[in-house]
Amino acid sequence: MSDPTDEKLLASVPTGLFVDGRWVEATGGRRLDVVDPARGAVLTTVADASPADGLAALDAAHRAQESWGRTAPRERAEILRRAFEMVTARAEDFARLITLEMGKPLAESRAEVGYGAEFLRWFSEEAPRIGGRYATAPDGRNRLMVRKRPVGPCLLITPWNFPIAMATRKIAPAIAAGCTMVLKPADLTPLTALLLTQVMDEAGLPAGVLNVVTTTDPGGVTGPLIADPRLRKLSFTGSTPVGRRLMAQASEQVLRVSMELGGNAPLIVCEDADLDEAVEGAITAKMRNGGEACVAANRILVHRSVEDAFVQRFRERMGGFVLGPGDEPSTTLGPLIDERSRSKVDDLVRGAVREGAGVALGGEVPAGKGYFYPPTVVTGVRPDMAIAREEIFGPVAPIMTFDDDAEAVRIANSTDYGLVAFVFTRDIDRALRFSERLEVGMLGINTGVVSNPAAPFGGVKQSGLGREGGAEGIEEYLETVYVGIRDPFAAEVDA
Ligand code: SIN
């Protein structure tokens, strides 16, 4: 990184922990390295929190909860709205930072900033709409009053693949609901979260509402928080194995949990699909974020009668991606996040070949610096192969065939995951039959992208619990309180 604009940007990002409205150093002054995945070079360092720092952040969140929970919804809405305007005004800074620390091409980072900012706007609009009801009991006597109140201090754990959007998708509904929070962003991409924190502070968020700890010791820092009775909710986005462990820990305090975990999305191309639309949809579903998304198409199921035509066009489109550092204008596919991810992707491709699959494109780790992996198409994949069972998280498209819809549904559902599926067909009844049979939380029909701040994002089976975004998203941060009231006419004295 030698661009003076980027150097200036990096120098402007706070690198401490944010606790009780102040930037502070980690205990003992410990720092962690933030690495550019395109060049393998250290960009900067940020504070590396200890368990004691994590607890200090929870102390602050706990202290702030009572008064924050009583603020007017409109006040919370206006802070979120201001934050939306400020993130939008600084979109280019956020985009450059995302590309520097996460690697995706600038165009994709810009799209992510728009997506992430929309969560701030959406939940600014949801805050004043927190509902309740007052009803008469069925026997006509007592009254039933139901109201909502904030859950309380939350721990929000966010991943590296969408450094701003996954943070705003949790922070914004928590703020809208009146919860305080400790945010622990991924140590691979902490800078975007730190800049976002600065913006939230400047937007007027009171001290203690949002506290941020960056750390290389995630278990050591989050464990004591999850065990602390002052914490009332845990929201996590990440892998299913880590989610399972966190849920086990959270069960000790019977914490409210939201889990947005792994996926193994099937993308089904029927023989009656518009093939150009299906190819474009598959490219989007596979290659958005370089395949590093839990909603990425992980298995492409093509009707046998259109396999050759689909593979030929899809391979051509995949071959058109330009691999390189995300900040170079010609790049359309950036590096993977680190060497561990790249080795996993490469092992899956090599394993598939050993099990009898063919490589129609890519499949070779390029020489040189950075964690690059080329766009890869693997054909002749069977449902029992590891590449069809595990989340790939890279630019690799395994292609399988099916003969009828029942077989497509059987293959699609033969996984522990249930996040999203995509179906391409011109027949609306057929699409709706798929929507009723596929075991997923989300379905895209003739589209390769379902993510939308106004829609409930989340999965079934081992893809998680709860929903983020949409009208459902704020409910994850609200408790329902019922008040039973004696019949107000019981004591009425006739005049
Ligand atoms: C994820 O990969 O975790 C989220 C992707 C999205 O919001 O589209």
Question: Helix and strand layout, with pairings?
Answer:
Elements: H1 4-12, E1 17-19, E2 22-24, E3 31-36, E4 41-47, H2 51-69, H3 73-89, H4 91-102, H5 106-126, E5 133-136, E6 143-150, E7 154-157, H6 165-177, E8 181-184, H7 190-202, E9 210-212, H8 218-226, E10 233-237, H9 240-251, E11 256-260, E12 265-269, H10 275-287, E13 297-303, H11 307-319, H12 339-354, E14 358-361, E15 376-379, H13 386-389, E16 396-402, H14 405-413, E17 420-424, H15 428-437, E18 442-445, E19 464-465, H16 470-473, E20 478-485
Parallel strand pairs: 7-8, 7-10, 8-9, 10-11, 12-13, 12-17, 13-16, 15-16, 17-18
Antiparallel strand pairs: 1-2, 3-4, 5-6, 6-20, 11-19, 14-15
Bound molecules: succinic acid.
Give the total of domains. Answer: 2
Q: In which order are the strands of the major sheet placed?
A: 14-15-16-13-12-17-18
Largest sheet: 7 strands, mixed
The CATH superfamily label of the largest domain reads Aldehyde Dehydrogenase, Chain A, domain 1
Using the coordinates shown, work out and report the CATH topology of the largest domain: Aldehyde Dehydrogenase, Chain A, domain 1
CATH class categorisation of the largest domain:
Alpha Beta
Bound molecules: succinic acid
Structural classification: alpha/beta
Q: Helix count, per DSSP?
A: 16
CATH architecture of the largest domain: 3-Layer(aba) Sandwich
Radius of gyration: 24 Å
Arithmetic mean pLDDT: 97
Distance between the termini: 85 Å
Globally, the shape reads: globular
Number of strand segments = 20
The proportion of residues forming helix, as a percent range, comes to: 25-40%
Low-confidence stretches: none
Amount of beta strand: 15-25%
